[in-house]
Amino acid sequence: QVQLVESGGGLVQAGGSLRLSCAASGAIFRINYMAWYRQAPGKQRDLVATVFTTGSTRYADSVKGRFTISRDNAKNTVYLQMNSLKPEDTAVYYCNAGVLLTNTDGLNAWGQGTLVTVSS
Length: 120
What we know:
By secondary structure, this protein is an all-beta fold. The protein has strands at residues 3-7, 10-13, 18-25, 30-39, 46-52, 57-59, 67-72, 77-82, 91-100, 106-110, 114-119. The strands form two sheets. Strands 2, 4, 5, 6, 9, 10 and 11 form a seven-stranded mixed β-sheet that branches. A four-stranded antiparallel β-sheet has the order 1-3-8-7, with no helix packed on it. The termini are far apart. The model has no long low-confidence stretch (mean pLDDT 96).
């Protein structure tokens, strides 16, 4: 099976920083993209940032200029550097990846989530 494991969440005061990591493991042929989503209590899960194989990145408007997504292809790991954190960033952050198992078969994998709490 394919597993995504997040780490790096925790409690931080407003204005602080955290770096989230997500490592993919299992029968992986290739990872096409990796992304971070977040879900606050009582709200839907929203896309935060995506990094593609080409290195192209996309960010939600709410985090532009504050968050940076990066990917280490050799380690099948994606990072989310979060700076200038705000209370509204509080959420469970989920790692997501488009994983190829073969040259034709793939799946969309999810991590278990890591909680980020930003206090004011």
